């Protein structure tokens, strides 16, 4: 099979590798579509993300969908020919976090495209069968691949305990912010306010469900929030930009007794927060790390047709064009949101 391998930072090589064989309780999947994620770009550009360092050649890509071509021994709920989406993190199933349902916190997780584990920018992958979910006939491979980042938005909305009719603020309209807006709409949010500094992303936010948008280049976030909420503040604020300034705005925007959710990873490990505001308004502050138990719900929600998350796809590439995709994502951020790569052609 063909695979795109990151040999070292900014060096991708198209290689011929052996097609893997599925073991017990595993399936072999022909990869149809893979989204290019910000983490892939970080590994390509810098060779590391925090403590995760690329120390040997690796295949990137973890937002994937495809078709089952072979089932290993013991697989009874999946069969050849099924169209599927892939949850990329294989957890241990035994630790306290796996046992209490928060398996996203498992310290022994083997996550696609996170060193040292290979990802899906290749023609075939083997996955544990419990991480593979059939998709409806009407769902495209593109939407199925985007279930992975949509799951982050879904988990963020869940962590914020967003209720029907409530007001939610989302700071940062990159792919995860847009997915969070879509998740908020599907959860029945009454008002969805999107914040960014690019008009193109704010226009896309409206397509994803935002009822109001704020461009921080031209408007005061604090003033607009007070206007849109009649000086009450928002019920839930979700920060997806990884920006210290956005964190400050998040805390200021939340109403008394409201909730704040931090999704974005800042370049700095520490960011200042207004502790007095958190205490005085008794704000619940929660973090988000990936997701858990989201895939069945995501498939159900995205099958409703109420939101089309494919609208954020700005570019499409064949496998051999992967380096072009990475470079454009780095140098043309204004015109790119989500790129889709097709290992077996379109």
From TrEMBL:
One Pfam family, short name: ADH_N
Keyword vocabulary terms for this entry: Metal-binding, NAD, Oxidoreductase, Zinc
InterPro entries linked to this entry: ADH-like_C, ADH-like_N, ADH_Zn_CS, ER, GroES-like_sf, NAD(P)-bd_dom_sf, SDH-like
Keyword Amino-acid biosynthesis: no
Cofactor: Zn(2+)
Residues of the Enoyl reductase (ER) domain: 7-341
Molecular function via GO: oxidoreductase activity, acting on the CH-OH group of donors, NAD or NADP as acceptor; zinc ion binding
Similarity annotation: Belongs to the zinc-containing alcohol dehydrogenase family.
PANTHER family attached to this UniProt entry: SORBITOL DEHYDROGENASE
Name of the protein in question: L-iditol 2-dehydrogenase
């Amino acid at each position: 099979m063909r695979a795109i391998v990151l040999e070292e930072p900014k060096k991708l090589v198209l290689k011929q590798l052996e097609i893997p064989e599925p073991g017990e309780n595993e399936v072999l999947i022909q990869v149809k579509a893979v989204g290019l994620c910000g983490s892939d770009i970080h590994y390509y550009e810098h060779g590391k993300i925090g403590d995760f360092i690329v120390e040997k050649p690796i295949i990137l890509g973890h937002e994937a969908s495809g078709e089952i071509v072979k089932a290993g021994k013991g697989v009874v709920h999946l069969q050849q020919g099924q169209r599927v989406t892939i949850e990329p993190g294989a957890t241990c199933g035994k630790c306290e976090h796996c046992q209490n349902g928060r398996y996203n916190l498992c310290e022994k997780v083997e996550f696609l495209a996170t060193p040292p584990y290979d990802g899906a920018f290749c023609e075939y992958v083997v996955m544990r069968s419990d991480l593979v979910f059939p998709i409806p006939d009407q769902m495209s491979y593109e939407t199925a691949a985007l279930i992975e980042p949509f799951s982050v938005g879904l988990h963020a909305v869940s962590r914020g305990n967003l209720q029907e009719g409530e007001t939610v603020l989302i700071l940062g309209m990159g792919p995860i912010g847009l997915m969070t807006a879509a998740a908020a709409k599907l959860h029945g949010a009454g008002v969805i306010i999107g914040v960014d500094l690019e008009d193109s992303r704010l226009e896309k936010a409206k397509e994803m469900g935002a009822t109001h948008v704020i461009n921080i280049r031209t408007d005061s976030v604090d003033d607009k929030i007070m206007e849109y909420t009649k000086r009450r503040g928002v019920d839930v604020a979700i920060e997806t930009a990884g920006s210290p300034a956005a964190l400050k705005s998040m805390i200021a925007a939340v109403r008394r007794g409201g909730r704040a959710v931090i999704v974005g990873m800042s370049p700095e490990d520490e960011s200042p927060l207004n502790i007095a505001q958190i205490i005085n308004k008794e704000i619940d502050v929660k973090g988000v790390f990936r997701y858990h138990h989201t895939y069945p719900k995501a498939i159900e929600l995205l099958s409703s047709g109420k939101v089309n998350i494919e609208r954020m796809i700005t570019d499409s590439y064949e496998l051999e064009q992967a380096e072009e995709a990475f470079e454009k994502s780095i140098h043309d951020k204004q015109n790119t949101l989500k790129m889709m790569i097709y290992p077996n052609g379109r």
